User: What shape does this take?
Amino acid sequence: MIYWEDLEVGSETEFGTYHVTREEVLEFAHKYDPQPFHVSDEAAAKTHFGRIAASGWHTAAMTMRVIVDALTREPQAGLGSPGVDELRWLKPVYPGDTLTMHGRIVDKTPSRSKPDLGTIRTQTTVTNQDGVDVMRFTSIVLMKRRPS
Amino acid sequence: MIYWEDLEVGSETEFGTYHVTREEVLEFAHKYDPQPFHVSDEAAAKTHFGRIAASGWHTAAMTMRVIVDALTREPQAGLGSPGVDELRWLKPVYPGDTLTMHGRIVDKTPSRSKPDLGTIRTQTTVTNQDGVDVMRFTSIVLMKRRPS
Assistant: This one.
């Protein structure tokens, strides 16, 4: 089990990869983000996307899946996340892309009120098969400290 | 068509509501966020959630759906969103909840480089049937200015 003490500011991890299929892009968009450029090639061709692009929230969901799988392989004493800062959709994600998710720990703070807890801030970057960064966010995670 | 000029800082909108079903919570979690407290009643009972709670990314996706439906009823000259700031999961979302999504315009800025564009910042708040705020974020949206 990895505790708050075990994580170092500046350390980097490759969480894993996710292959984006057209079927899944359409399924997510029809359910949660049916803007024309996410569900129609014709409509997308008239926008800067050029062709159907994944919903930004879909990219976030795919990223979460890769992170959860990584945490299943290397369990951490995490207690959930109060939120995310500076979520940015930098470039379109297209069907057929293969995304790689990286994390870099940018900050850690012990809890002021609870001596057994601490907070970690991780900047997650998602890069496509051409090495282009397509999404970035900084997540806040509450963790247990190593029992003494 | 609603242009950048038509939106006023401080104005508020109710985007709509979304009913959260157990089936959908499980489906999303199995696909994108299979942490134990999102997929197992037994595991969730051992955490502060108490019972299965929706993935925070699922709550974001449901919110997007309600916003897209509102924008379909009242089209805006939006050009997509570069991102979201201060996304916070304030309280758990449970199967059976009915969520209401509100927006409040908190800032608008004309583009420095492109005279036909402007940016709007909207704080979106999601509230459950008991009036408890469960999620909040501030989205950045690029919009066209009214053609002169």
About this structure: The helical segments of chain B are 22-32, 36-39, 41-45, 56-73. The longest helix of chain B spans residues 56-73. Strands of chain B lie at 12-19, 83-89, 98-110, 117-127, 133-144.
